[in-house]
## 1
Amino acid sequence: MAIELGKDSIDIGIVVRDSDAALKFYRDTLGFEYVTAMQMPGSTMHRLMCGTTLVKLVKHDVVSENADHKGGPGGATGIRYWTITIPNLEEMTDKCRAAGYTVAVEPRDVRPGVRISMIEDPDGNWVEFLENNA
């Protein structure tokens, strides 16, 4: 039996160490639409939209010393990266580089008509850009 969906996209929660740095990346550099901030017991959530996907940046009042392993897909098991399909791969990759972010994977062909690059956010999470001209 397939899961019954309430909407056509998922929400993703990213726990961050520094809200300002995360907002600079996701809102100011990538251009996600800022919706609101929500105070919750022990944390603040900044809600942004990427298309129909809600991206929740959560900053706990007490930041854990534990962190996910860095290194993208080969760094560890678990969620290592997420993908945004865009029409302007080179431009967005260059924009991130110019803003000082690490380009973990330079733009490259992965199959005919499909190119990717991967950028590291301030907390070491990787965002894959995918341009599909197939």
Note: Helices lie at 19-29, 89-98.
## 2
Amino acid sequence: MLQAQDNLYKEQLFIKDKDTLQYRIMYPKSFSEEKQYPIVLFLHGAGERGNDNKKQLVHGSSLFLSEKARDSFPAIVIFPQCPKTDYWSKVDVDRSKNPIGLNFKYEDGPTIAMSLVMDLMDQTVSNSYAKKDQVYVMGLSMGGMGTFEIIYRKPEMFAAAITICGGGNPASVTNYAKTLPLWVFHGAKDNVVDPQLSINMVSAILNEGGFPKFTLYDFANHNSWDPTFAEDNLLTWLFSKTKK
């Protein structure tokens, strides 16, 4: 499968000042700059960090590779790779605990990796072939945390978001609770990222008057991305959302 991913997801570099973000990008079949396409940003988990510009494709990239997906939902799909020394979300991580301890610090500003992703998205969405009312973000684990953070930092950019086994700062949801469709997934047996973190985010959105979609798998541990990617209407739900 990685061979097919290598072929369709093209290797790219995004350079800003002295910092570099490696990423992969897949264009729709018969891509034309004269047409317009939705944009999907996918943020990987901590285990896929590195500098090979490949490992970030391990989970999620095949979701967009099937003929059905490419024909039904022609889109530009972006998989950036976070360096080993960085993190998508601004958070203190205590791995001595089980589940891990997480202290989100959005107020300290974004990480370098997140800053580069936001700049890359600004550049991508500014292109004439980008459907500005159909820009989406999804992510798992560390990428789920990054998803919660990027919709807080750039709520005006996204038409919908999907978070999988992530978490965030519940106080941040005021930026998007009423305006951004969100589907939150978690495994009830997750012993890496506490499912209570997703529950807290969903509760905060409800308290702010939002209507999040929430799926808690009673059988799943941390790899709740497996049943998530198997959801029949996952992409149908995502691509049905248009920014008002």
Note: The radius of gyration is 17 Å.
## 3
Amino acid sequence: MDREEWDRRYAGSELLWTAQANRFLVEESGDLSPGRALDVACGEGRNAVWLAERGWRVTGVDFSEVALEKARGLAEMRDVKAEWVQADLLEYRPAPRAFDLVIVFYLQVPAAERRGILRAAADAVAAGGRLLLVAHDSSNLEHGHGGPQNPAVLYTAADVVADLDNSGLEIERAELVGRPVETPDGERTALDALVRARRG
């Protein structure tokens, strides 16, 4: 999906996604001491804003200017500040070893694109810092709820571990996780890949 398509998806006054932070971000980073954070493919900024509310100095990057405008609005509404960068992730290179937390949430792109983006994200993790990734898992297509229906943009925690090989990051957690989703027909479970890695 190209930038124009995402701009169209994000158009309108309402948020495309919820304003609440992702549950796995809350669980995995809630006890971390605030520092510098990078939100790769930040969309409308819900996770970046949540981190900023907790004292993190946050940079959010996305290629949709429409989404970033909504992120700015959400940050203003919540009375926090963040840096918002409009960039194509295939070309964007964050400062190396500059961030205490790098998050990549629901970046659903083909494997060849994903590998380069994740290597750049890994390179941005500072000593002692962490990378946290959550994505729609490949198994969600047949066994979970929602998410992209194109298998080419789905992947597993094992795929991410392979992408991060020789990155200098130590894998702390890599697994399939369930995420409850409320639907008109009741609660369903989405299946996500979760990877947490740390630079020593």
Note: The first helix runs from residue 3 to 10.
## 4
Amino acid sequence: MSAEKRLTVLGHLRELRSCLLRSVIALVIAIPIAYFFTDKIFAILMQPVPGLHLIYTEITEMLGIYLKVTLYAAVAIAFPFIVYQTVMFIQPAMTRREKVYAYTLLPLIFILFISGVLFAYFVLLPPALNFLLTFGGDIAQPMIKVDNYISVLVRLLFWIGMVFEIPLVMFFLSKIGILNTEIVKRFRPWAYVLAFVLGGVITPTFDPINQSLVAVPIIILYEFGTLLVGIARPKK
């Protein structure tokens, strides 16, 4: 390896270290801010199931889940800055056109993620939790641990938020020349199958109704992404 190439690699590693350090600092700053809102976040997470009484069975369990929710909230607060640092790290390898697309689409990342979280909270969670908490109610009464409840909700909210990024990712990949209309149309059958697989993985239930509540939006988002690919790279 030449001296010039070693210097380039070392420069990239130093830049990566700087980006990671700045991201960690942002997360540390966000933690006390998130801690102030943790009680309100708990109240919001409890609203999809009014009257639900959670329990904990270990001495340190409630403290642990309280800190976990605080950390989740801190990551959400620092997330825009972390994404910005990620873009700053990879932007030297991007062309001018790719940089323009990345900076233009950056705000949409957060808008689509929040849209997915709101969809999961208001549309998906009520029927999913109702199914889980009432199934077999004539046999046994649910006694839900707070750790299990919070973990299920946070996982759903996060992954549905990520799923809503599908059209934006497809549009960006088409603008930089990786995707075109022929590819996305050829992949469509597999995308439909993958949508239901993801629906089964993301949802904590086994019934096809709640699975479809996740799979159908994924399919719609894929088709919307296909439309955006056609707009970004019209067929010649």
Note: The longest helix spans residues 3-46.
